[in-house]
Amino acid sequence: ASIGQPMGRAPPAGLWEAHVRLRLPRNLLDMDTFSKSDPGRRQGPWGGLFGRTEVIDNTLNPDFVRKFVLDYYFEEKQNLRFDVPAGPDARSSRRLLAAQDFLGQAFVALGEVIGSQRGRLERALTGVPGKRCGTILLLAEELSNCRDIVTMQLCANKLDKKDFFGKSDPFLVFYRSNEDGTFTICHKTEVVKNTLNPVWQPFTIPVRALCNGDYDRTVKIDVYDWDRDGSHDFIGEFATSYRELSRAQSQFTVYEVLNPRKKCKKKKYVNSGTVTLLSFSVESEFTFVDYIRGGTQLNFTVAIDFTRPCRAVPSPQNNNAENPSCAGIDGVLESYLQSLRTVQLYGPTNFAPVINQVAGAAAQVTDGSQYHVLLIITDGVISDMLQTKEAIVSASALPMSIIIVGVGPAEFEAMEELDGDEVRVSSRGRYAERDIVQFVPFRDYVDHSGNQVLSMARLAKDVLAEIPEQLLSYMKTRDIKPRKADPQ
């Protein structure tokens, strides 16, 4: 399999495991081995080989054992290409395939597989002129441990005294071990002042951050005495694993804190105190894909600001007040072209009416089965800022998000103010319940080198980047769980 070139990314919406099956017509297979792979070739935007399956001998319907783990990003189109070589030389990746060694290939977006019924997608193989190349069956399953969240609490007893005046100010540092034997910090507790017997507050951490899904991978914990100047004193360390920690759900687990230097110098050294795991629990957080698979429908509304220099009028509908809905993106484009021929360009530019219109639709269904996304394309000049803030604050309690794309050379301070990443939007003393606005300036995505495809892909990615988390934030605040997907 080959994968398209990656770009700068936000955290993934989920971790998925892909499984591959093939079904080939009997009259095509004239070699004795074949395997789905890409033997080192590069084509166009493809980023090279992602992985190879094992070779399965003498069969037309191979069911490969090896699976591939991929991060899924809702906001990106992650194109995959599957190449199916054949013949004895398919085992080698050092040579290009000759035409007779090639059984076919398939192109698919990862989102197509994840969004398909039960995560199963069948696609015809192509690439051999005049012959039926068979089919490839792709199955995708979300890895459960990537959504598991651990909550734990620890305390310590009789830690070494490090401060000349007073006792110690202890805190813990958690490290995840890496494949190369190094360690990466994954959590720090708060500092508990002036005690040798601290009790730290409970904290949560994703299982993936703690052990990367490997339950037996070493987790190292260092114990430090905090110093104001940053030269924290090392008290000691101990090691454990996720699996060992999880056994503490029914009993306390006590770890000896050891300082290797003291152990080497002092023959009678026992330890530098103990740390006790008081509690450990695991919960699964629902993902964006859980809700989509459970039937949550995304409703998309487009509002376009038709602008005369420094003046504009919003046109959120398709010129049909009775039925403003459009059929897909083609319908939106058709409505836009029709509006260009008929609309009169004038001001003022008011955002509040279109926000309130979508909010009214969102307020009709608040059980999680519907979620609304409003896209506003504007030059950034806004006439009703106070009313728009009020509308956003009210809409933040509803299942909806707002994306604003600023076009043209204008300054966009007003639009950036509406984007609540830094400071939550407020109106009349009320703050927005959650951040529902994403602002993206179009000019930042103009590629002067001429690679418009890449620049538009970046634009699309950033426009949609916050939708999964905003949808999840609404569901969490309302304690709405995803419905179970249809088993059929």
Automatic annotation (TrEMBL):
It comes from Apteryx owenii. InterPro entries: C2_dom, C2_domain_sf, C2B_Copine, Copine, Copine_C, vWFA_dom_sf. One of its GO terms (biological process) is cellular response to calcium ion. GO terms for molecular function: calcium-dependent phospholipid binding; metal ion binding. Keywords: Calcium, Metal-binding, Repeat. Coiled coil: none annotated. Belongs to the copine family. Residues 117-255 form the C2 domain. The keyword Ribonucleoprotein does not apply. This is Copine family member 9. One of its GO terms (cellular component) is plasma membrane. It comes from the Eukaryota.
